[in-house]
Design brief:
heterodimer, A: Rossmann fold, OB fold (Dihydrolipoamide Acetyltransferase, E2P), six-stranded mixed β-sheet, five-stranded antiparallel β-sheet, 10 helices, 22 strands, globular, B: about 300 residues, mainly alpha, MetI-like fold, binds adenosine-5'-triphosphate, binds magnesium ion
Chain lengths: ~375, ~300
């Protein structure tokens, strides 16, 4: 029922020579919600627009919907629903007319269209806004209208480009939950672009992390979070702390301490790392404060911020850059104090030094084309 | 439930037509200060507009036919024909200019190509030309010694000359109007949101629908305002007509002839008032029509 999208060998070079996307393969299963995640300019929107039919891949690229080649089909024919960050609602029409527009274009009868519009507005909880003009709506209401308009025509695919970025944090979370429920209910294939990691985790069946026009990793939220395949992904999904270490005979050495049973996997070769210098990436939970006797490392507190349920310390002197460590909210710690920490080896992600991200694209494709 | 709260925060704006008056700083917003600030404007309007207008309107009564002169200009064939001709020509010029400039302006905004700046400079060149210069150029083009005449003479053995009649005037006014309209169209076209078009297309709209439902409504304010200026200018312009020929029967020429040659002040005055009233009526009607059609488009969804 829902449409499977396949992109094969799709690259994108713009007219001015900008290489926005290196050739990549991606399969999005019917009914799946895929999130494209990555920093600004990495090519998320370009992929979305290629699926929509607003951009076309370089020669050699093929896009199929359920096996039908749509590579050269223009957007009007593809039956895709689009939701933009800027809402893009028609200002010369009311809410109801916006939602009805696609139905009108498709020649749906007046009665049927009215009924469908009513359903859509109810589904988005905006039935009382039907006759409002667009400039009389708040941002959150506009985005609801945009969603209703996009799904009213029952598209094969729903494409959302940072739909919540223009909204305030609280509303963003609420609408995110609603969108999630909506996508599950409709069972529609959806591609969602964001640069917000939390949003990606909350919405995606799978997440595609992108870096500079390449796919850095594809995986479920859990895989991306727990097993980032390269330093870029690790950093991007929040494991921003970094320490140096050494692998010797399969054991991890940090300073004078030795740890067993650390998963040291080189994504470039798909092999276990036995020997050589490594980089360790971890979140705040990779280190925990302790007393001096049991300490693995000791640093100096640079800054303290109170997060309510815990205290967040910025600590220098442990790694090359300052690291973030969390401690109990009730601890009394002032900047300048020494802090002793234990390393939690199972919270570390280990990469061989120089395992730059993005160079594992070939490896990724194997994952992607399932 | 919580989502409902959010929805109700949507504010409904009262449609206060003079919103700009309220955007002033709080101090300047009080009626007394506003009235004070408006005094110079009121004085100027009264001194240079209302009073002369009233005087002109009164002069009509001094003629042999008295107030009936207003009636005479409608029944007299020559005057009435001139009224109709002026109206039709101005409307024709306006429509042609809007269509031409609508297409060109959109193209110029959407495309970057070599020589674009040159082309824009050329298109906006006539901005500074007075009507007489435009008339002169029309003669060079379509006059007895004009380019078109010599070309058609060489090709078909027949000289095509149309500078000294209404079609020459049409060309002149069109040329005169293009820069004004094209600048207004380009200003509106630059503000069009490309994502609106993409949204419409994603919903299945073919090109003509995108033009009708997204592009034209977006350009409408610019088209209406520049079209109004274009129409009013064509109704009242004099220099071009005067340069081309003294016997083109457009209203400003007739007024000039009645006033200076025939010393028929009453008719000249009546025609002047008629010219003003007609222009105003047409512009008013257009505004009402466009306003209400936008409204019905917004409500009825036809
Ligand atoms: N029409 C275009 N012409 C030339 N280069 C373009 C064009 N559109 C995008 N690019 C370039 O392609 C790259 C990818 O752009 P894209 O819009 O896909 O990024 P993005 O991941 O969506 O970023 P953001 O999060 O800021 O929206 C960027 O370097 C951008 O400058
Ligand atoms: Mg983008």
């Amino acid at each position: 029922m829902s449409t499977q999208i396949r992109l094969r060998d799709c690259a994108k070079t713009f007219g001015d020579g900008t290489r926005a996307l290196a050739p990549f393969d991606l399969t999005i299963e019917g009914g799946e919600t895929i999130v494209l995640l990555g920093p600004s300019g990495c090519g998320k929107t370009t992929i979305l627009r290629m699926i929509a039919g607003l951009e076309f891949p370089d020669k050699g690229g093929v896009i199929t919907f359920d096996g039908d080649d749509v590579t050269h089909q223009s957007i009007e024919k593809r039956r895709v629903g689009m939701v933009f960050q800027s809402y893009a609602l028609f200002p010369n029409m009311t809410v109801a007319q916006n939602v009805a527009y696609g139905l009108k274009v498709h020649g749906v009868s007046r009665e049927e269209s009215d009924a469908r519009v009513k359903d859509m507005l109810e589904m988005m909880h905006i039935e009382m806004l039907a006759d409002r003009r667009i400039d009389q709506l708040s941002g959150g209401q506009r985005q609801r209208v945009a969603l209703a308009r996009a799904i009213a025509v029952q598209p094969r695919v729903l494409l959302l480009d940072e739909p919540l970025t223009a909204l305030d944090a609280k509303l963003r979370v609420r609408l995110r939950t609603e969108i999630n429920a909506l996508l599950r209910k409709l069972g529609i294939t959806a591609v969602y672009v964001t640069h917000d990691q939390e949003e990606a985790m909350a919405l995606g069946d799978r997440i595609v992390v992108m870096q500079k026009g390449e796919i850095a990793q594809i995986g479920t939220p859990r895989e991306i979070y727990r097993k980032p395949q390269n330093p870029f992904v690790a950093d991007f999904v929040g494991a921003a702390n970094r320490l140096d270490g050494q692998m010797r005979d399969g054991r991890l050495h940090i300073g004078t301490h030795v740890f067993d049973a650390v998963d040291a996997f080189d994504p470039r070769h798909g092999a276990i790392i036995d020997q050589g210098p490594v980089e360790l990436f971890f979140r705040a939970d990779g280190l925990s404060t302790c007393d001096a006797a049991r300490a693995h490392v000791t640093g100096r507190v640079e800054a303290v911020s109170y997060l309510g349920e815990r205290l967040r310390l910025t600590v220098s002197g442990i790694g090359a850059q300052a690291v973030i460590v969390d401690t109990h909210a009730d601890d009394v710690i002032a900047p300048g104090a020494d802090v002793h920490c234990q390393i939690n080896p199972d919270r570390l992600t280990v990469f061989p030094v120089g395992a730059g991200a993005g160079n594992s694209a070939a490896n990724q494709s194997a994952h992607a084309v399932s | 439930m919580s989502s409902v709260q959010n929805i109700q925060e949507g504010r409904s704006r009262p449609s206060f037509p003079f919103g700009f008056l309220r955007r002033a700083t709080p101090g300047a917003g009080s009626p007394a200060i506003l009235a004070l600030l408006m005094t110079p404007g009121i004085i100027i309007v009264a001194a240079f507009f209302l009073i002369p207008l009233a005087l002109v309107a009164m002069r009509v009564a001094d003629g042999p036919d008295g107030w009936a002169t207003y009636f005479v200009i409608l029944t007299n064939g020559r005057y009435f024909a001139s009224l109709v001709q002026t109206l039709l020509m101005s409307a024709g010029v306006t429509l042609t200019a809007l269509i031409l400039c609508g297409v060109c302006g959109l193209f110029l905004v959407r495309n970057r190509f070599a020589g674009r700046n040159m082309l824009m400079a050329l298109l906006t060149l006539p901005l500074s030309f007075p009507g007489t210069v435009v008339g002169f150029m029309v003669i060079m083009l379509a006059g007895r010694q004009g380019v078109i005449g010599s070309v058609t003479d060489a090709l078909f053995d027949e000289k095509l000359v149309f500078a000294y009649e209404i079609s020459g005037l049409f060309i002149g006014y069109l040329y005169f109007s293009i820069p004004r309209v094209i600048l207004a169209v380009m200003a509106s076209a630059e503000k069009l949101d490309p994502q609106l078009e993409e949204a419409a297309r994603s919903l299945g709209a073919p090109t003509w629908r995108v033009i009708k439902d997204v592009i034209l409504p977006g350009l409408m304010p610019g088209l209406v305002s520049s079209g109004a200026i274009c129409f009013a200018t064509a109704m009242g312009a004099f220099g071009t007509a005067f340069t081309l020929a003294t016997d083109i029967d457009v209203l400003p020429m007739v007024i000039y002839t009645e006033f200076t040659r025939n010393a028929n002040v009453a008719v000249a005055a009546a025609l002047s008032i008629a010219l003003g009233a007609m222009t105003w009526a047409v512009l008013f009607a257009v505004r009402c029509f466009v306003g209400s059609s936008a409204d019905t488009a917004a409500r009825g969804g036809a």
